[in-house]
Specification:
2 helices, about 60 residues, mainly alpha
């Protein structure tokens, strides 16, 4: 099941996005279809945004 997008302007935590990434890899059996690859790329961008937010708040 695809992750539920957050309302505009909010960012899910890196841990939550990471769990979605792990779930995607598990359900795909380690081989991403083109649709899975699209979702994976979107999740990576979201994860990067979440980690940037974490780094800023830690400084």
């Amino acid at each position: 099941m695809p992750p539920t997008p957050c309302p505009s302007g909010s960012v899910r935590s890196a841990a939550v996005v990471n769990e979605d990434i792990r779930e995607l890899w598990q359900r795909s059996g380690g081989y991403l279809s083109p649709a899975d690859e699209d979702e994976y790329q979107r999740l990576l961008v979201e994860w990067a945004a979440a980690t940037r937010g974490s780094a800023r708040s830690a400084a």
